[in-house]
Every structure is written in structure tokens, then in C-alpha cells.
Description:
By secondary structure, the protein is of the alpha/beta class.
Amino acid sequence: xxxxxxxxxxxxxxxxxxxxxxxxxxxxxxxxxxxxxxxxxxxxxxxxxxxxxxxxxxxxxxxxxxxxxxxxxxxxxxxxxxxxxxxxxxxxxxxxxxxxxxxxxxxxxxxxxxxxxxxxxxxxxxxxxxxxxxxxxxxxxxxxxxxxxxxxxxxxxxxxxxxxxxxxxxxxxxxxxxxxxxxxxxxxxxxxxxxxxxxxxxxxxxxxxxxxxxxxxxxxxxxxxxxxxxxxxxxxxxxxxxxxxxxxxxxxxxxxxxxxxxxxxxxxxxxxxxxxxxxxxxxxxxxxxxxxxxxxxxxxxxxxxxxxxxxxxxxxxxxxxxxxxxxxxxxxxxxxxxxxxxxxxxxxxxxxxxxxxxxxxxxxxxxxxxxxxxxxxxxxxxxxxxxxxxxxxxxxxxxxxxxxxxxxxxxxxxxxxxxxxxxxxxxxxxxxxxxxxxxxxxxxxxxxxxxxxxxxxxxxxxxxxxxxxxxxxxxxxxxxxxxxxxxxxxxxxxxxxxxxxxxxxxxxxxxxxxxxxxxxxxxxxxxxxxxxxxxxxxxxxxxxxxxxxxxxxxxxxxxxxxxxxxxxxxxxxxxxxxxxxxxxxxxxxxxxxxxxxxxxxxxxxxxxxxxxxxxxxxxxxxxxxxxxxxxxxxxxxxxxxxxxxxxxxxxxxxxxxxxxxxxxxxx
Length: 667
């Protein structure tokens, strides 16, 4: 501030992440966007939250504090799926844990208030976005109030908020107060009561019990003068009624299309939480404007030589788009970024690659990723904007690819080719998750991918093999994976390359039975896969899968007390560990648990010492639990299977690049 000649900041942003000035970090984007509008912006990164003093270090902001927990929800960041404390933090220098509080948005907002009571506080980012209404919180195992209520902030912004933050900043600069701003899309605020000139559509009752199905079928775009607000069940109701919570989750997701979503209102105590409709997606010129800003593309110099793992991961990568129309029920992308794909232009993307080449230290010619939430949705959209405006489908690709969806991969192929032609670029890898049910519609894309953009391994996420959990995930059947694998293998062979798919799977997802996990383990062994690192379902705030987990109902369908689909879920720690153990069937530490489970399931036929069996009868010395078979090593294999082996090819051959002492692939 002294070097710039500033006597004060207009806006001070507080974040739970280390400050990395790069467009993959939300706080950097908001800071640069406001700076481009002429505002003086200061950033307080990972402050000590024990007192308000660190929040005073840049002085009193002229307009507002902007608060975010960081690029991840602070609870997801700090705790594992087993609710154990993590001791590392990828968004912190040297991967150090404990540099942000639990529920960071609430804590930071309180400290901002203590520092300067009369300064407005606006909360945003992924944590605020996913906790914008009453939501199930896995870590406390209860339904919590909106984070806006608990933090006592003046306004909440959800989704990607560039347009909203610019509008609010300018209106504050003109003398308005956040309490006067009731028309900014993608925001939430508190009211004493619903304005008298608004009519309410009351959807607080369960479908089929006093409420007509037509209430959910809003079949025309919103009109600018439409003053209808959807009444959600109150916080106190969903807190005490899991079934009603599942119903509320269904309504929220139905009201997520910016073209026809209506404002939502939910009672919290004696006040009303009001959510305006979702933000209108950015146009390509607007996206270019965000990504073309003058980012330093590096961590702040104060961090010196400290490692920031999240920065290192994206250091040489380029984000080409936002949003995802996949609608996977366990994923938070659509709740935050929306289902409509927002694309950058070729020119903007190519300029960023050149900037990496010219400005980022350590660049060797390798672009580590050219993607986004998914690798291959670039420039895909609905064939008819009018249809897109009225659509209420939760996914454009489930249960089948919508006939109105453009699935042309040609723009992406052309982008890849132009990127490869940039001087100084030796290789461009594709590391973002690939939507294989779309890729199979373009053999040319698969050939391009296999020939130029895979370095031996390509990650892909079928998530499961069984229809029960797949239908709850809103993922295609395993036959879609098989079709892609056949095409990918053929394209790799044609290119003269030995390449492999790395499939990822989720354990303990709602709708998954012990038998489902057993069948997945059998599939893994049959196809020669040994997963080194696996994922256990973690109920993130506001996702549809979390609603299934908590309510044990399926919000993908009408939710009723009777005659509705019940979703059984592994909730106890023992069963969740069993599901995870099935994914790591090859790990000797899991064999005692799996033996007991298989016997109880009547599948002792899977226990034996031949290749057709899932697990052996013997136990390597020093593994598993003590028992009659402990220490009975097998001749020539004293330590049992090598659990360090990463996922490998489906034909049983181990890739040449994987073996003893090699670092396994990580998700």
C-alpha cells in the first residue's frame, strides 16, 4: 500500500487459502476483477483467527470485507470421509495443516465484525455457495442453518460471482447498503417478511400430499416482471424431518436453471432467507476478460521457497471452460458453477499457454492439462436456446445423452492442434476427468487423444460397475466404459503406443450394498486392477447424494412418506470400512475383514488360493489381525501381495513403467 501510495483499501478480501495469483484460485480472480474496475483491493490470506488483530492489518476497507473459506469447503479440507483430522493442507505453504479454522466463513466473518463493526461483510466461494440454505452437515451429523444466518454476514454470493461482485461494489461505492440490494442474481440475504407485492408458490408439502405436481412444471423463461417466489420448507421443519429435507433438496435442484429458476425463500426462526435466481452464465468475451487479466501466475513472494501443492498441481495447466451438465449426484460442480458450459475463446486459451511459456519459472514445454471440470465438454451446448431456458433436467447425459445436446468434439480437436503448434510446447496432457459417454460419440477425438495427449495413463471415472449405485450417482452403466476402453485401446495400438486407463471408483455411495461392493471387487480382480488409493463417499453440503444419505429417500424422483424409493446407505464406520476394503481386495491388511464378510454373505467360495478366488485363506506375517491364520506366510511370498502396485491394464499385464519402487498414481 505504501508503494502504491494508498491510504486505504476499498475492498479487503479474506481467504482460507495461501494467496496464489492465478485464475484457478477464486480469490485471485475476484481481486483482479475488482482491480480492473478501478477498486483498490487488499488480500488477507490465512489469518490467525484467534483475535481480530490480524483482520486490521490493512486498515478499514472503504466498501466491504469479502470472505471465503478458500477453494474448498473448510470442513472437506480439514477432515477425511471417516471424520478424521487431516494433517496436511494442499492450499497452504509446505502443505501444513491447521492454518484455517473449522467453518472458516463463519469464523472469519465474526472476526471482521470485531475488527470494524460498521463495515459490510459479503461471503462467497464454494463454502458459502454449498451452504446457502439449510443443509445437512456430515461432520456434525445434523441439518445446519444457512451459513448466511450463522455468520451474520450482510450478503451471500453463490456460484461464480464476477458479475455480481462488480455490480455490488459499484453500488456500494455510490452509497447503497447491501440491505438495499435485492435484485442481484446469485445472492442471498435476510428479510423480516416477504414483500407484499410478491406472490408465494408454496412447495413446503411433500409431492402427492396436498401439493399438485404442476407446481414443479414451470415451462417458460422468467419474465423480468415476474414476482413469484418459491416457498421452501422452513429450516426448523427440515432439521427435524429427513424426508422433508429430501423433498427440499429436490426443489432446490429443480430451480437451478438460470433461464427459468425462481427466487427461493426459507424461514429461519423469525426471519426469511431469500435467494435470488442463479447467475446468468458468462459469455465467451466475459470469460476471456476474466482469464486475460494481469495475473502474476505465482504464489505471493512472501512465501519464498515454500511448496504449495495445489499451485504445483495447476502450475502448467490451463482452464478452458466452466460448468458441467453431467449432474453426478455426489459432485458439487453443478451446484456451484452450473450446468451450462461457459467457454473461453481459442485466442484467450492460446495466449495463456504462451504466457505460461514466457512467464512461469520451470516450464519445460509440458502443459499438464487443458481442461476444466471435465476434459471434453468444451463448446457443447443445447441445440436450441429456447429449449435450454425451460429445461429442468438435472443432467444432459443421464439416463441417456439428450437428443438436444450438441456433442461435437471438433472445436476441441482444433484447439488441441493449435495448442500443440505453439512454439516451445512439446507436450499437452489431458488430466481433467474425461466424460467417456460423450467421447465414444467422436472416434476422431479418441484417436487424437490417444495419439497426442496421453502419457501412458488416462484417468477415467466409471465410479462403479453395479446398476444400484450407478443409478443413484446418475452415471452410465459399465458397458459405456467397456465401449470407450475398446475404442481407446484400438486408437492407442493404431498410434503405436502402450497406454492404459486408470478407472476410479467410490465406496459406500448411497444405494450401494455389500453385494455391490463385492461384485465390484470381483470385476477389479477379473480385469487385473489393483487400486492403490480409493475414495470413500463423503456427503458434501447440498449435493443430491448427501440428501440421499441423510433422508434415505431418492430426490431424483418425487419424495413422499409412502410409496417412494428408499435408498439404503452405508453409514456406520464398520460398513464404510468394509466397502473401502472391497476396493482394496489385494491389500493383506483387509483380508481378515473381507473373509468374515464373505462368509456372512454366503460367499465363502470366493476365499481360496487360486487365481479364481478373490482373497486367499492364508495371512502374511505382521498383517491384518491376530488369529489362527496370522503369520502363515505362503512359500515364496512372505509379505503377501504388493499393495504399492497402482491400477493397471484390464488384460492383466502390468505396465512397464510401474513396478517396485515406482510412485503409484494418485487421484
